[in-house]
Specification:
This protein has about 950 residues and is α/β, with parallel strands linked by helices. It contains 44 helices and 14 strands. Helix 39 (about 855-865) runs antiparallel to helix 40 (about 875-885). The termini are far apart.
Length: about 950
């Protein structure tokens, strides 16, 4: 414990680069408790306040909350025992180290990691090499070893994940520092001083062949020819040993040139600073986030093309990305990198003047600026960035064309919402930032660029802001809602001093109003998302504006047919031409592989407002509803035949539009019949897609609002769908809904659909365990079905009756029914029927202890699942395959797959039907008895932790291997 007298001047030093250690006023402090040290390390690098819930969850994840809180309090006590009181700020809810603002000369915290990062960041602001080198050398000296070397917590995976991520981040920074050091010292001619840094760089990645070549060159420049040749030998040895390959041709050529004396060490020269690269790139006041992949792709395009244009919607980050590319390419253009900012111009004639003004070519000259530019740039090797060309597209294009034709070593990087369309132009559409989905785990959220950007920008207005378990879901929702648009995310983060992330997420329904208050120094059109999109809107023709606002009724994208449906009489040729213009102006995005179009969400919201202003909202949404009603009615029979896979894929892509059309059809005063036609036509889709919960909700809401005298066939089919969803979820309303469906369908004289509805009613009696009644109705179903020309209801009735016999233990009686059903489905090329039939037949035979050709039948079913996009049915195949694997002698692996299947059922909240319940109970008991309780539960637990995709892949592979 530190006495009061010694607190007059205290400094706590944390050394985390390498094995962790603490010092207090340069004296070592014993920190024997690993959790206390872990807590201190985390708080030292994240100085904001953290909730006790978050910290205890990170360090004691397997403990009950109260026990974890107790452990956290004890860790705090141990920390205070080691370093003294006053360093940790703890309240009832939060914990942090003392903030920077409260530090004084009397008490301070120094962390080697923070100093390391600060030194590298500062060095990158120094233009003169002689000023950079000391900073970089100090940073390299601080890096004793990798972050928290040899330190981890065996029972705290979240902390270990954080440590690994931080270690990788710091390792990359060290790579940057060592690269800069060796390059800077080489440029100054201080070759011997550069060698240790180049060697250390190679130690970080011994297989980095480029680093081997760089060290060979430095040895040569230092006059150490033998050392350069030995370095090649070392490179050759490690590549052959680790990778079994020879060095690249470039490395071998370098070795040959050194060995033959073709490359000579440079003659000693007067050492002086290399002049800073020429440029007018603005210094950025905020950190550049992510875009590593884009930067590589764009710099590659610039290397191979003389004109590269970055396109994308407003706010997507074209300008910032172009400037970042310029920063990375500074040393490759002897005559510099120059940015011409065109956004504030309104006069096309001023475009050449602005570019000429970069080089002071306007004053005192009577020649046109174009001529002055060509004369000046012709001998130069230079990269010119033309930023924001879209509103002056013709003038920008003419200037770029003239300069490129007359200046052979000039390259141009342009940013525009649409391409310049010059010969030889390489176009690069800037994508949104990566966004998390609903399944993304907290530990991985910062892997997404949009989340990192939000956190970084939020800290600019609230320095203690940090992502935590409480606010992470809201931040992820914000980034998704804003579809990864950097400008929108930055504007949202700017409100963090007024609203919590949760409040911002709630207010994003009015996002174009909320997303205001940008940087006052930026152009007005970049200060708000609305102004940015206004700018693009005003560049559109009237016809383009009309189509864009009407297309905004689509959610999740649209096809050309969909666009024509809301186009109000415009021909397909007109629609296609207008879409091309909207795509060129970056307001509509196209997925050519899927033949679909979509808008970024903020653009769509803006266009919807314009649609309402034009008084076209109702009519356009009615056309949208009509389009999807027709699609649903076309889909219904296709989902029961050989085109199932094609239509499942199509409806999966249109799911959000179908939901939106249903919502519109359910509005007061709308055409309710169209809504029921939509639901009746898609009832098989929701079941096959494994969306029974969503289907149950949608159909129940629709039926709760139905008028008493509304008894159309569409209503009957909607009741039928609701009965199926109720059965899947184990709800008690199956019979009631099926009976309403049957009554309506009978009135309309439709025997095929009647047979299907009768089968669904029988399912309800199975739930109630009234099996005699269920058998009676199934037999009635089969009789009705056999009178129809369509064999689909026959197959369904056979399979359902066989399932009931299986549940009653009459396995032999069930087999011929299953087999007849599968044969009918083969004739009909009905993938769903074949999959269901084989899965059920397999389970039935397994109850008899029969394996026979079960493995090949399940393999065929698994293949059909993949081809027809029937993922939901793979669940039943996994269960059968797991039991089959167990029976065939691979018992632990069979039980493990069984555990993966059970975990998925629990995750989805699906209620098993009774017949599968009998199957599961029987084999659960058999597996436990065969393995013993300990091994059984261990295998089940391992399977439960297996990612479901991995379980799917393993099942398919095992089944297919049995066919070899």
């Amino acid at each position: 414990m530190i006495g009061e007298e010694s607190e007059l001047s205290l400094q706590l030093s944390l050394y985390l680069l390498g094995p962790p250690k603490l010092e207090l006023n340069n004296a070592p402090v014993a920190a024997d408790r690993r959790k206390s040290l872990a807590l201190l390390a985390y708080l030292a690098l994240h100085r904001e306040k953290h909730t006790r819930e978050f910290l205890s969850g990170m360090l004691w994840p397997e403990y009950e909350q109260e026990k974890a809180f107790t452990n956290l309090r004890h860790a705090l006590w141990e920390t205070q025992q080691a370093i003294g009181e006053g360093w940790v700020a703890a309240s009832r809810e939060t914990i942090s180290l003392i903030p920077d603002s409260s530090q004084s000369s009397e008490k301070g915290i120094w962390v080697d990691v923070n100093r390391f990062i600060e030194l590298i960041a500062t060095s990158r602001t120094k233009k003169e090499i002689s000023l950079r080198i000391p900073l970089l050398a100090e940073s390299a000296a601080l890096y004793r070893n990798h972050f928290l070397t040899g330190f981890n917590l065996k029972d705290a995976p979240s902390f270990n994940d954080w440590g690994r991520g931080k270690s990788e981040e710091l390792r990359n920074l060290l790579t940057l520092a060592l690269t800069m050091l060796s390059n800077d010292l080489t440029l100054l001619g201080q070759f011997e001083s550069a060698i240790p840094y180049a060697q250390r760089l190679l130690l970080l990645d011994p297989l980095n062949e480029e680093a081997h070549r760089q060290l060979m060159k430095i040895h040569l420049q230092a006059g150490q020819v033998n050392a350069a040749l030995k370095q090649y030998m070392a490179c050759e040895k490690i590549l052959r040993k680790e990778l079994g390959v020879d060095p690249q041709l470039e490395t071998r050529d370098l070795y040959r040139q050194i060995r033959k004396g073709e490359l000579k060490p440079p003659q000693p020269a007067l050492q002086k600073d290399t002049p800073a690269p020429l440029h007018n790139l603005p210094y950025q006041l905020s950190k550049f986030i992510g875009r590593e992949k884009e930067l590589i792709e764009i710099t590659d395009l610039i290397a191979g093309n003389r004109l590269v244009t970055l396109t994308g919607t407003g706010g997507i980050g074209k300008t910032r990305l172009s400037l970042r590319c310029g920063e990375q390419l500074l040393n490759q253009y002897p005559d510099g990198i120059w940015v011409a900012e065109l956004a504030s111009l309104n006069d096309p004639e001023r475009v050449p003047q602005v570019v000429a003004g970069l080089f002071d070519l306007n004053e005192g000259s009577e020649n046109p600026p174009n001529e002055n530019l060509i004369r000046f740039l012709r001998p130069k090797t230079m990269l010119l960035i033309l930023d924001n060309c879209e509103h002056l597209l013709v003038a920008s294009t003419l200037l770029a064309d003239e300069l490129l034709k007359n200046c052979p070593n000039l390259k141009i990087l342009a940013t525009s919402r649409e391409p310049l369309r010059l010969a030889g132009e390489a176009q690069y559409r800037v994508p949104p930032l990566g966004q998390p989905d609903n399944q993304s785990l907290f530990n991985h959220l910062l892997e997404f660029e949009s989340v990192r950007l939000f956190e970084e920008r939020a800290r600019l207005v609230q320095k203690d802001f940090a992502l935590n378990l409480e606010n992470a879901p809201a931040v992820a929702l914000i980034c998704n809602r804003l579809t990864g648009i950097p400008l929108a995310i930055e504007l949202a983060a700017a409100h963090i001093n007024m609203f919590s992330p949760q409040q911002i997420a709630l207010r994003l329904d009015e996002s174009l109003t909320l997303l205001a208050g940008g940087n006052r120094a930026s152009l007005p059109r970049h200060q708000t998302m609305r102004a940015s999109i206004d700018w693009s809107w005003n560049l559109l023709s009237k016809s383009e504006q009309v189509l864009l606002r009407r297309l905004a009724v689509f959610t999740g994208g649209w096809t050309l047919d969909g666009a024509e449906a809301v186009g109000f009489g415009q021909s397909m040729a007109q629609i296609f031409g207008l879409l091309g213009g909207l795509i060129a102006k970056s307001l509509v995005l196209v997925d050519r592989e899927r033949e679909r179009y979509h808008m970024l969400e903020t653009v769509r919201e803006y266009a919807l407002e314009r649609l309402k202003e034009a008084g076209e909202d109702g009519e356009t949404r009615n056309r949208h509803l009509d389009f999807y009603v027709n699609l649903a009615e076309e889909a219904e029979p296709k989902l029961l035949g050989k085109e199932l896979g094609v239509w499942m894929k199509k409806l999966n892509e249109e799911r959000e539009n179908i939901i939106a059309a249903n919502d519109w059809g359910g509005r007061p005063g709308s055409n309710a019949e169209k809504r029921f036609r939509l639901l009746g036509g898609t009832r098989y889709y929701w079941a096959y897609a494994g969306l029974a919960k969503l289907g149950y909700k949608i159909y129940s809401e629709a039926l709760s609002e139905i008028a008493e005298n509304h008894n159309s066939l569409a209503v009957g089919l909607t009741y039928d769908g609701a009965a199926v969803f109720a059965y899947t979820l184990g709800e008690s309303s199956v019979i009631e809904r099926a009976e309403k469906s049957i009554a309506i369908i009978k009135d309309h004289g439709d025997p095929v659909r009647l047979a299907m509805a009768l089968g669904h009613k029988a399912m309800g009696y199975v739930i109630l365990e009234e099996y005699e009644e269920a058998v009676k109705i199934y037999l009635e179903t089969l009789a009705v079905a056999r009178q129809t020309e369509d064999k689909r209801p026959v197959s369904s009735a056979l399979n359902n009756l066989a399932e009931l016999y299986r549940m009653l233990g009459e396995y032999e009686r069930a087999i011929p029914l299953y087999e007849e059903a599968v044969e009918i489905d083969r004739d009909r090329e009905d993938s769903t029927g074949i999959v269901v039939g084989y899965a059920n037949l397999a389970k039935n035979k397994l109850m008899l202890g029969q394996t026979g050709n079960t493995r090949s039948q399940l393999a065929e079913a698994a293949q059909l699942v993949e081809e027809a996009h029937l993922r939901e049915y793979m669940q039943s195949i996994i269960e059968a395959a797991a039991v089959l694997r167990f029976i065939m002698g691979d018992q632990p692996e069979g039980v493990r797959l069984f555990g993966a299947s059970e975990a998925e059922i629990e995750r989805k909240g699906i209620q098993r039907d009774k017949v599968d319940g009998v199957f599961i109970e029987h084999w659960t008991n058999a597996m436990c008895k065969a393995l013993g309780e300990a091994l059984y539960h261990q295998a089940i637990e391992e399977g439960g932790k297996m990612p479901y995709e991995e379980a799917l892949a393993e099942t398919r592979e095992w089944l297919e291997n049995g066919l070899a």
